[in-house]
Amino acid sequence: MNLRRGRNLSSLSALLLVIASTLYLALAVPSAQAAEEVKINKPAPDFTLPNLEGKEVSLSSLRGRVVILTFWSVWCHVCREEMGVLDSVYQKYKDKGLEVIGVNIDPGGSTSVEDYVKKHSLSFPMLRDTEKKVMRAYRANFLPSTFLLDKKGIVVDKVVGLRNWNSPEYQGLIEKLMKK
Asked: How confident is the model over 36-63, as pLDDT tens digits?
C-alpha cells in the first residue's frame, strides 16, 4: 500500500514540476514578439554562445553537418530523460556528419550543468544561454524544444517535448539528411 502511495506522490510531484517549469518559462521567458518565428524549411537563426569551457561556438560554424539543436535545463525532468538518448544518437552518427548541440538555459555561475554532464558522461557539446536570448529568438518556450537542421542550416523539424531520437523514424530522417 505504501509503495502505491509513493508512486502516486512521485507522479504528482513530476506533474507539478512540469507545470511549475512551464509557468516559469511563460513568465521568465517572455514571448519574443520582435523575433521572427523559426519556421520549417527556413534558415535557422545564427547565434554564438559559449560552451562549458567558455569557448565561443556559432551555429553557422556547423554548416555542412546535420544538427540536432536542443534547448534544455537541469531542472527539467523530461529534458534529463532525453539527454541520454541524444548522446547515443550523437555517438552513433557523429563521425558520419551529425552534430548534437545542447543549449542549456540554467543561470550563469551554476555548476549543476557541468556536474550533470560529467555525472552522465554526456559527450555532445553543451552551450550556455544564461540570458535566454537564443531561446527567445527560437521561441523555445517549452522544454525541451529541439530543432533538426539540414546541412545548409535549414530547419527540417521542430519537436517540443520528449521524443525517441533512436526510433526508426528519426534515425531514417537523420540518415536521409546526412546523405543529401
From this structure: 578 999 999 999 999 999 999 999 999 9
- Judge whether 70 and 155 are in contact, CB under 8 Å: no
| Predicted local distance difference test score (pLDDT) of residue 33 | 38
Tell me, yes or no, if 79 is annotated catalytic. Answer: yes
| pLDDT confidence of residue 35 | 45
* Nearest to 129, CA basis, from 149, 152, 145: 145
What whole-number distance in Å separates Cα of residue 180 and Cα of residue 126? 26
In the three-class reduction of DSSP (H, G, I as helix; E, B as strand; rest coil), residue 129 is classed as coil
Homologous superfamily of 2-179 in CATH? Glutaredoxin (3.40.30.10)
List the catalytic residue out of 79, 105, 127, 177. Answer: 79
Return the bridge partners of 71, or none: 103, 145
Record the pTM: 0.80
| β-pairing verdict for 98-104 and 126-128 | parallel
